Amino acid sequence: MYTLHLSAISLAGNNWERKLYKYMITRRDCILLLSELSSKGIDTDAVLKKAVKNPNIDIDVIRFINEHRPFDANLFYEKIRKSYNTKRSNLYKNIVTCDEVDCSDSVLTTLAALNLQILLYVKNVEDTRMFMSHTRFEEINQVLLNYSRTFDLVPCIQVLQIIKADLKAFEYFNKNI
Predict the structure, then answer these.
(1) CB 131 within 8 A of CB 72
(2) Is the pTM of this model over 0.85?
(3) Count of domains forming the chain
């Protein structure tokens, strides 16, 4: 099973250090989306109680939300996958095949291409802030900036691996709806 809670990444260089502790989908996001679904007439009482009581993010809550209102990030990753399947883009392949050994050549171009695709897709979403957070736009920019200063690929590879885990988590949710 894939988790939404992922490890911290330490970015070090030029006498500064910053830690990224980000959830792909936060508890607050879940509550906001459940409130939105409730305002549209969908009965969310039981799921909302579960989301409020549990300090962690519950997989059943995520599934319920995704079933009634697909996450914009989920639709975005699905679009990238379909582009790969129709042989128009290698971005999806570059994300899912990256591991520490052989992706060092393409990690920067993959992150930059993903960054560009996020910016192009943002015009199609309802909640820009949530979409940017779910697709890890800020983390991508931070590691690319860090690379430009320190030439350290390790944080870039780590963020790409986290994005791969996010993508696989969405695929898991899609299969089990």
Answers:
(1) yes
(2) no
(3) 1
